[in-house]
Amino acid sequence: MINDNGKRLIEFCKGQNCSIMNSYYCHKDIHKFTSEQRRKIIKSIIDYVMVKQNRKIIVQDVRVFRGAECGTDHHLLITKIAFPRITSQKDMSFTQEETKINEPRYMLSLLQDESVRDLYQRCLATKLDIQDDWRAQELYDHMKTWVHETAAETLVIEMDSNGRVEWMNGEVAAAIKDKKEAYGTWLNSNRQEDLDRYYLLKKKTKKIVRQCKVEA
Asked: What Gene3D superfamilies does this protein's entry cite (predicted)?
């Protein structure tokens, strides 16, 4: 059933010459629904992948993965994309050093911690200085810079020489593993006792991670 928002989305895609890719591929229903409210037994598709019809990239698949822990009633929506091979000499003239991207590693899972999330929001708010005469591209460039700067200040994880997170140890890894297994068990059983166990392990894992960060 398509509601008013769905109709507006279709009209938007028509006007922008876009395709909604969710329904292009054959999958089971559990791999199509992007949102699920278990208490109300409501399933719906409210997250979409839209691409231009005259695109150069090739969308190979769009599918929902229910096992991913997103901390929300939305399931993880994954898109597989293939990029065309570079054939012109002009495109291949760039060296590996010129095209290498050296981005810091952001630990987005830290945003689940209320104190970190509050710090991120406050830091970002101090940087926002939007001018009325900016065009869309100027606004995008500034927003991208502000978001990267704030993430670098609050979400970058210090790593040792081997590329491992300094506070990560066996206790943390075991707690995370138990939590993920409990989440998978709850998805398969849909029992209240399994949900309670998952929440208990989730709380325990947060406590262990917080303690290891302080000790590191």
From this structure: Endonuclease/exonuclease/phosphatase
Half-sphere exposure of 26 (CA within 13 A, CB side): 0
Entry pTM: 0.41
Strand 76-82 and strand 58-65: the pairing is antiparallel
What is the three-class DSSP state of 77? strand
Inform me whether the pLDDT recorded for 120 exceeds 50. yes
Query: Which pair of structure tokens corresponds to residue 56?
Result: 């150069």
Q: Which helix (H) or strand (E) holds 197?
A: helix 192-215
Angle at 205 between CA 182 and CA 38, to 5 degrees: 40
Alpha-helix runs per DSSP H in 38-135: 96-99, 114-127
Q: Token pair of 194, please?
A: 């399994």
**Rounded to whole angstroms, how far apart are CA atoms 22 and 35?**
13
Q: How far is CA 91 from the centre of its chain?
A: 30
Residue 50 has phi, psi (to 5 degrees) of -120, 135
Q: What's the CA gap between 207 and 38, in Å, rounded?
A: 27
